[in-house]
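We treat protein structure as text, and this decision shapes the records that our systems exchange. The tokens are whole numbers drawn from a learned vocabulary of local backbone shapes. Below, we set out a record of this kind in full and without editing:
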Amino acid sequence: MNSNLKTQLRTVAVMQPYIFPYLGYFQLIARSDAFIFYDDVSFIKGGWINSNKVLASSGGVQSFSVSLEGGQSSSRSISDTPLSTRREWQGKFIRSLRETYARAPHIEKVSALVNEVLTTPSSSIADLACLSIRAVCGYVGLTPHFERSSRFSPETFNQGRTERLITMTHRLEGRRYLNLDGGRAFYEPTSFEASGIELRFLTPRLDTYMQGNRSNFIPSLSVIDTLMWNRPEVVYEMAQQGNVAP
């Protein structure tokens, strides 16, 4: 396959939706023509679907979590996991952000973005997480085609993992399937190649940036932190980083 044809391949990526995920997630989105939120698979207990980390006013790191009705349960899909009707945590989190990031150059715009996402009516963690990701993409200028697996291809639910990903990629006229490199062990390239699809993996590149007056950079925090310290166009360029390889 010549290099010119490779640049024309339509790339599809599929990933569970996480609440304000880290920059590497957006590097996957930036390399995709179409991005599917994998929201009808099982909720991952103790994972990043409804929680993440930001800086703490004490100088360390603090976790934040979206409250769920009935708590975390792997017996429900992400799209079937409802948000708690108690929303006091939203205001508390925004106040905490404003305190911690009071000296960040983009505190006003970013706290307003986070507040708008958290106060938009959402019934499930899938709704809220997808909204958070799309809001960030809109803010920095990432414009892939988005779908949700629960709505886009529910008829493929009972297919095997690889078969389902191949089916969804074909439906979007994809010629390349892109996954974060942590998923290498789960996929067999020959299955994709037999279906006319290139399987590629993205290794994120997380460059350092100034986090106020902290002397030691803390990596892999929620994208909220990245946005607080960097202009949208800079975050857009950060999202273009990472290495794609077989």
